[in-house]
Amino acid sequence: MMPLLTTKGLSRSFGGLRAVDNVDFALMRGEIRAVIGPNGAGKTTFVSLISGRIQPTSGAIVFDGADITGLPTYARVRLGIAYTFQITSVFANLSAYDNVALPVQLTLSDRRSKGALRAGVMSALERTGLADRAHIPAGQLSYGHQRLLEVAMGLALEPRLLILDEPTQGLADSEIDNFVELVRDIARNATVLLIEHNMPVVMQLADRITVFNAGRILAEGTPEAIRDNAAVQDAYLGTAP
Amino acid sequence: MSEASPAKAYGLHLGVIALLFVLSFLLPEYYHGLLARIMVLAVFAMGYNMLFGYVGLLSLGHAMFFGAGLYGAGLAIIQLGWSVPAAFAAGLCCGAVLSLVIGLLALRTTGVAFMIVTMMFAQVFYLAILYFAAWTGGDQGMVVPQPARVLAFGATSLDLTDPTVRYMAALGLFSLVLLMTLAIVRSRYGRVLVAVRENEERTKMLGYDTFSNKLAAVVVSGTICAASGAAYALLFGYVGSSFASVQYSILPLLWVLLGGAATTLGPLIGTLFMYYVIDVTSGYTSAYLLIVGIALILLVLFFPKGILGTIRQRWLGWLP
Questions:
Q1: What is the number of domains present in chain B?
Q2: What is the ipTM metric for this complex?
Q3: Which of the 8 DSSP states describes residue A235?
Q4: Residue-wise pLDDT tens digits, B146-173
Q5: Mutate to test the interface with A, among B197, B203, B206, B318 (most CBs of A within 10 A)
Q6: What's the CATH code of the domain at B238?
Q7: Chain B neighbors of A153, CB-CB under 8 A
Q8: What burial class does residue B141 get, using C-beta atoms within 10 Å of its C-beta: 0-12 exposed, 13-18 middle, 19+ buried?
Q9: Which of B36, B42, B221, B222 would be B65's cystine partner, CB 3.0–4.6 Å?
C-alpha cells in the first residue's frame, strides 16, 4: 500500500542548529501515529514543515503521491492536511460558531446553501461537545474547551491527515479521557499524526510510534516495541532507578 | 456576524436611509447642502472602513483612491466631454485599476511599512496631479461647468446642480454602498476578512489564501472611495488637488475612528459628528480646530472604540 505521506531527506536548520536533520519518514493511510521525543527534539519543527508553516532547508515532502514541498500553507490545507496548534490560537473575539464556520465554508461544495453551513458547523461542534456553547466568544471559553474548539476547527476541514500538536497539554484527567475517545472517532475517517508528551495517551491511541531525538528519528515501531527499546529509554523515558 | 438576526440589521439600515430621505424635506437650505456633502464623504469613510475596520489594514494613502475617482470623472467630463454616467464609470474604473496595482505592491508589506508605502504612493499621485497642471489645473483645480452636470434621459433631464436632485443622488449612492457593505460584512467573505484581521497566520492554516482575500478587499475599498470621489466631482463641481493631499488620507481614518471602526454605520456617524462639531465651534471662535482636537482626544480617551463601537460593546451586541 502506498503511504499517505512520505518525507525524503527532510532538513531544516535555524542558524547552526539542525532542528530537523535528514529525516526519512512514511505514514500509512488510516493509522494513528504518535511522535514523541524530549523537548527540542524537532517534533514541532517537523510537523510545521509538513503543514507548510516553515520551509525546509532541503529534502522533499510527498502527500498522496504528489510533491508538496513548494506549496504554500493554504494549498496544503485544501489538499487535506490540517494542523491544530500546540498553543491554542482560536479567534478569541469570534464566537465558537464563527470559528468553526471558517473551515466549514471552505469545504462546502455548495457554496450558497446557508443550511449546509449551519449543519456542518453544528456537527463539528457536537462531535467535540461544544454545541451548547456555539455563540460564546471563543476567548471566553475555558482552556479545555478552547482546545476542543481547536480540534473542531481541524476536523471541520474534513482532513485526510490531521496533525495534532500536543492536544492534551493543560487538560484535566477527566477531559483527557474524552479526548482519547474523540481522536479514535476522528481516526475512523482520517490519518492522525499526534505529537504528545502524555505517555498513557500515546500508549492507548498510537498504532505506531516514532521517536525523535536531536532532529533525527531515533526509533520507530509499535508501542510495545518502543517501550522495550533500550535506546529510547535512555534518551527519553528515563531508566528505571 | 451572519448568525445575528438579519431582519433587525437590515431594518435599522433601511430606517437610517428613510430618515435621511425625510430630512431632505425638513432641513433648511444650508444643512440640506451640508448633509448631501456629508453623505458623499461618508461613502469615502465606508470604503476606508472596509479595509481598516474589517481587514485591519491601516492605509495612509486613501486620498489617492478618492482622487482617482475625482479626477477620473472630472477629466473625462471636462477634457473629453463625456456624459455624466460615462464620467462616473471612468472614475470607478480609475479607482479599481489603481487600487489593484497599489494592492499588489503594498500588500507585500504589513503594519507600519504598509502605512508608509501607501502614504508614499499617495504622495506620488498628489505630486503627479500638480506636475501635469496643463490637464489637471494643478493646485488651482478645475470647475466642472454647470451644463456638463446634467443627466439626460431622452427628453427629460436631471440637473445635478439642483439641490434636491443633488441630495437624492448623494442619498442613492450612500444607500447603495451602505447596503453593499452590510451584505459583504455579513457574508462568508466578510467572515474571512475579520479572521485575517484577528489572526492572519491562523487563517492561512484554515486553508485561505489570505493575500488574495486582502487584495480583493483593497480593490473593493479603493473602488468605493473612487465612487465617492467621482460623485463629489459631479455633484459639487469642483476637482481640486487638495482632495488628493495627505489631509484627505487622514480624514477618513478620523471619521471611522470616531464613528466606530468595523461598524457599518460608524463611518456616517463619524463624518456627521466631525462636520457638526466643526460647524458649531467655528461659529464661536476662529480657533475651532483646537476645540475639534480636544474633542477628538476626549473621544479616544473615553470611547476608544468610537461612538457606535462603544454602543455595540455596552448595549447592542447585534449591531453589524
A1: 1
A2: 0.85
A3: I
A4: 888 888 777 778 888 899 999 999 999 9
A5: B206
A6: 1.10.3470.10
A7: 206
A8: middle
A9: B222
